[in-house]
Amino acid sequence: MTAQVLIVDDIEANAHILSVIASDQYYTVITADSGAGAIELAQSWHPDVIVLDVMMPELDGYETCRRLKADERTMHIPVVMVTALNGSADKLRGLECGADDFLTRPIDTETFLARIKGLVRLKQLFDEWRTRHETTRALGLVSEPLGRVEVSGASALIVDDWDLGAASVESALAEDGILAVRASSEEEAIAISAVQELSLIVINLSMPNVEPLRLASRLRANVASRDIPLLLIAEVDHRDLVLRGFDLGVNDWISRPFNPNEFRVRARNQIRRKLYQERLRSALDGALKMALTDPLTGLYNRRYFIRHMEGVLGGKQPTNVALLMIDVDSFKIVNDRFGHQAGDTALELLGERLRLEVRPADLVARLGGEEFAVVMIGAGFDEVAATAERVRRNLAEREFNPTGESVVPLTVSIGGAVALASDLSLDALMRVADRALYLAKARGRNRVEITDLASNDLQTTLRGLK
């Protein structure tokens, strides 16, 4: 996963150590030696994560973080504060300034990298939603600011079989008007998350009769709960479990002894981010429903696709961008044999299948006729190829019965390209994907061809023989 990391410390040796750790993971790193310099770079360079020292002259880390979070241009950049201070009051102060985490020196390398990786993943997903919102604003469909998000009235799920521990969490959430429900088992938690609208799930890592990390994995795998923030409550010796949790998509954690004030700040930060993302999604859906969607399939149309891709590629960020071009095989035969109404049904079926098979943040568009496109940000070659093959296979295996009497094959050919957003223009990326689509058609249809331009070694995957 590529990302840009800004490290801020007035002591050159400290900045160098963290820079080496991040660079070894192939992150692009820039350093600043002051709070003012950090703010200037955050506005111009747009890092994915800011690692911010607390103790700096003139503008300390707390005030720097506060100003970053107050500026609309930088408020969505995750901030990890680093300090030699080890008091709970210092940590609480940093979190209240808007920091996403607070690490104490000497820095544990694995914990540091796990937090960076998790925050980068979250930032890139969030940027996808913000890019879509900015696209709608550029088109004049949304003009009003989204405003501040309040957590009062939000709902949280507490997964804990310890009555006293669950009561402490529920009491802390109630202080901010957050309504809590409780589950004492893995299956109960899965059932509640599937039917209730939640803004946070809190999981106790010390439950003897529940495997908390398996629960976290299942929650991330389920469509209904994959976007709900997960917050772990851990013991001091649960370091390895917490690190594994970050790999599974956990958003944050707090260690015992349970500090209700620190927990409240962490919970509020996670809930606000979730609610803000939902507000972005709602504003986007409402504004684009008529102006920028295809009336038949409900997908985005070519106009929106072009503007969105121009925004993604124009930012020149070192992030993977994948474009899948999808074309229905022998579509003219369906129209000629069964009529245009049957053709419309086939296109609706494909649009529905695409929505189900891609990630929530991926863009799906109908470009016209029987041609569709999928845009995936931050996905690697293997994930893109697997997604394309899943779409092709699932559509081919599903019976298409347009008249109630005749079952006809309905298949697609898919061509794709994976590249760094900073490397190609939209025209160039579309040409590569179109060539791959042509190759899929020429080699027999009902297959996938993906070209990887993001790695040094050019590779192509051939999938889905007839």
From TrEMBL:
Domain (Response regulatory): residue spans on this chain: 4-120, 155-271
Cross-referenced PROSITE patterns: GGDEF, RESPONSE_REGULATORY
One Pfam family per UniProt: GGDEF
Enzyme Commission code: 2.7.7.65
GO MF assignments: diguanylate cyclase activity
Enzymatic class: transferase
GGDEF domain mapped to chain residues: 319-453
Catalytic activities: 2 GTP = 3',3'-c-di-GMP + 2 diphosphate
InterPro entries: CheY-like_superfamily, Diguanylate_Cyclase, GGDEF_dom, Nucleotide_cyclase, Rev_trsase/Diguanyl_cyclase, Sig_transdc_resp-reg_receiver
Protein keywords: Nucleotidyltransferase, Phosphoprotein, Transferase
Gene3D superfamilies documented for this protein: 3.30.70.270, 3.40.50.2300
Coiled coil: none
Modification 4-aspartylphosphate, positions: 53
Protein's name in the database: diguanylate cyclase
